[in-house]
Design brief:
Helix content is about 35%, strand content about 30%. With about 230 residues, it is an alpha+beta fold.
C-alpha cells in the first residue's frame, strides 16, 4: 500500500472507531493509553504558567541569558506545582502545563499561581539583579487556571507520541495565561473561583478578598484576577 493510501486509511479509521472511555483518578502515564481511540476521563484543574514577552527576551539579550531566565522561571514553577500536589504534563517553550486532581484541586492550583508570583518577585528577579545589575531586566509572567472534565488521549505515531488533553479547562487555562495586565499575573475562571476554599479566597489581616472580578472581553465571560502572592514555606 502506498504511503498516501496508508495515511488515508489511518485517518478514516480514527473517525470510524468508537471511543473507549474509562474514569481516571490519577494522571495517566503515556503507556497507559493506546494509540487507538482509547481515553481516560478526569475531573481536573489545569494550570498554565507562561513567561511574558519571551520574544523581547530572545531578541534583546544574549541566548545564554535568555536560557537562564527560562530555566529559572520553569524550575520555580515546577517546584511550586509539585509542592501543591500538581502533576506537570507538558512544556511548550517558555510555559508549563500542570494538572491538579482530587480534594481541593482548585484551591491548590490557585495557591500555586499565587506562589509562582511570589517566586518571581522575591527569588527570580532579585537573583537577576544581583548577577546582572546592569541589564535592568525583570521577569514578568502570567498564570491561567480553569477546571472541567478532560478527555485524555494519545496522539502521534508509534515511537513518537504524547498525551493530548481535550476539554475546556486545558483550552481556557492556556488562553488565560496569555492575558497581560500590569500587576495582575494570576487569572482564574469563575468555575475555579466558585470552588475555592476560604483560605485560597481571602488573605491578609484583616481578611480580605485576594481576587478581583473581571470580564474577559475576548470571550465575554467572567474571570478573576489577583495581584497577591503566597509565600512558599
Amino acid at each position: 500500500m502506498s504511503t498516501g493510501r496508508a495515511l488515508k486509511a489511518e485517518v478514516e479509521a480514527i473517525f470510524a472507531t468508537k471511543w473507549k472511555r474509562r474514569q481516571g483518578r490519577v494522571v495517566p502515564d503515556v503507556d497507559a493509553i493506546t494509540l487507538s481511540n482509547d481515553s481516560v476521563t478526569l475531573d481536573a484543574a489545569v494550570l498554565y504558567a507562561d513567561l511574558a514577552d519571551s520574544t523581547g527576551l530572545v531578541d534583546g539579550f544574549k541566548d545564554w541569558f535568555a536560557a537562564e531566565v527560562y530555566k529559572a522561571f520553569l524550575i520555580a514553577a515546577c517546584r511550586i506545582i509539585r509542592v501543591n500536589g500538581g502533576e506537570i504534563t507538558a512544556f511548550d517553550g517558555d510555559r508549563v502545563m500542570a494538572v491538579f486532581l482530587g480534594d481541593k484541586k482548585n484551591s491548590r492550583a490557585a495557591q500555586s499561581g499565587l506562589t509562582i508570583n511570589w517566586a518571581v518577585q522575591n527569588i527570580i528577579n532579585p537573583a537577576i539583579k544581583v548577577s546582572y545589575p546592569d541589564t535592568g531586566f525583570q521577569v514578568k509572567h502570567s498564570v491561567g487556571i480553569d477546571t472541567s472534565t478532560l478527555l485524555v488521549a494519545k496522539t502521534g505515531i508509534r515511537a513518537s507520541n504524547d498525551l493530548v488533553w481535550v476539554g475546556r479547562a486545558a483550552n481556557y487555562a492556556a488562553k488565560l495565561s496569555t492575558l497581560r495586565e500590569d500587576g495582575y499575573p494570576t487569572f482564574i475562571s469563575e468555575a475555579v473561583f466558585k470552588k475555592l476554599s476560604d483560605g485560597a479566597k481571602y488573605g491578609g489581616e484583616p481578611r480580605r478578598p485576594m481576587w478581583e472580578r473581571r470580564t474577559w472581553s475576548q470571550l465575554g465571560m467572567v474571570v478573576y484576577r489577583s495581584s497577591w502572592y503566597w509565600e512558599m514555606p
